[in-house]
Amino acid sequence: MNRTRFRVSKNLVATVVFVLALAGCGGGPINGGFAGPVGDIDRDQVLRVTSSSPLRNLDPYLQASYGGWGYLTLLFDRLTTVDSDGNLIPGLANSWEFAPDGSYLEMKLREDVVFHDGTAFDAAAFAANIRRGRTLEGSTVAAALRNISAVDVVDDHMVRLRLVPGTGVELPGVFSTNVGMMLSPKTIAAGTDIRNGPGAGGSGAYQVSEFVPEESLSLVRAAETNWDPEAGLLAGFEFEWIPDASTRLNGVKTGMTDLTWVSSANEVVQAQMLGQNHSLGVDQVVYRNVLGLYMRPEGDLANPDIRRAVASAIDPAAVSALFSGTCTPNRQLYPAGNWSADPSYEYPYPFDPEKARAVLDSSGGARMTLTYAAGTNTEYTANVLQSTLSDAGVDADLEPVPNSQNEPRYLAGDFESMVSNSFSPKVDPAETVNTFLFGGYGLAGGNPRIRELATTAADPALTREERAPIYRQIWDLTLKEALFVPICNQTNAAMFTSKVVGVPETPWVDMGIFDLRHVGMTE
Asked: Model-level pTM?
């Protein structure tokens, strides 16, 4: 992961290496940044966090987008997790293995996990959650579980997931998301209104004390000792949703909040200066997410030649300049170095305004509406795209919508296009295919060859080396459909005060979200 770190001001000469193991947290000094302030973990501290991503409800199986996952990781433990480099690691499942013929996935569960209501986490609890995810009305995880044909309880802490033939290879990675968040079977059976308050239904290090949808969330540390010794280092969290990046930045500068993230150009540059001046701790990460333009084959965009012309009219360098160079041009779906990415790939529709105009002139021009989340950095991008598309002969209108509505409404089919940084390459490319190519985004465009290749590549019996060239074909064919135009990878800058520890090790920040289970504060 591409990271730039700046240390905070106190104890500049300190060179203590950050260690977050509980053994260190319990008595020894803790590094408060990047060789910055040192002190003991203060378990009575409450971390004040601001974020641009609102949380609409607390049910892990009713999340309309991934923006809410970060909050829920503090309440519900997952079967698998990822580290700060995106590597898959154990969670509630100690280990997992596919059958040699790919017919099942076997998972060995931890034996020391208890939900807050006193119910033990075991194979029966696992099965109850899978059943709920598949049958709950409005479930947003049902599609991710569709390749499980049956759940066999081998023993109290071993499950065997029977798979639809040739499918399921993505499941270990999927279980690191909201799909793998486990609830107490007692809470499930009681019909608890999990959307507004899960009560004692989680096993995470924290519980909900107050929740106002799309406004704020307050958490307190659970009374029970969490199975994860690196979690529960704080007395609680206070989350507030603030869409304006400048307001969030000023909150940390003035000490009103302890931690936030910014990705807009002006704020990232300010964050860099504050980090270099040692005023605040700053951790910069290049997004794994791709900022780009989604298009649906509707109206004038139903013509693939029009979509290709739109793609050729977009200049990634102009967008990067808008972000003061903090959005790195990128024309692929997976980041360089990923096993499914093609290191020699050339995007089929490079910036060529003359070619775009020639196609559009021959087609009599085109009209489209650019939808974006108001008050976010995509607003500036949408304005730049409107200008460049106009130069090429596209009459593009702008349609701002609230951030909480942008993605869900696009997935519901309300908009013909969307400027967004939501394209998030998943742990396993099979999940990326399911989510973006065949899910609500529909980036495969009904191309039967993509479907055929995806079916082949998703077979758990294949090795990674056998799957890689197939996915490279899939990415190429998908981008040729021109239903998504990749533009650049933004920079996400975490900003935090001198007492906050563990930020550089936070997973998911390269997706624009966070997993704060192991973050703490010093005295």
From this structure: 0.84
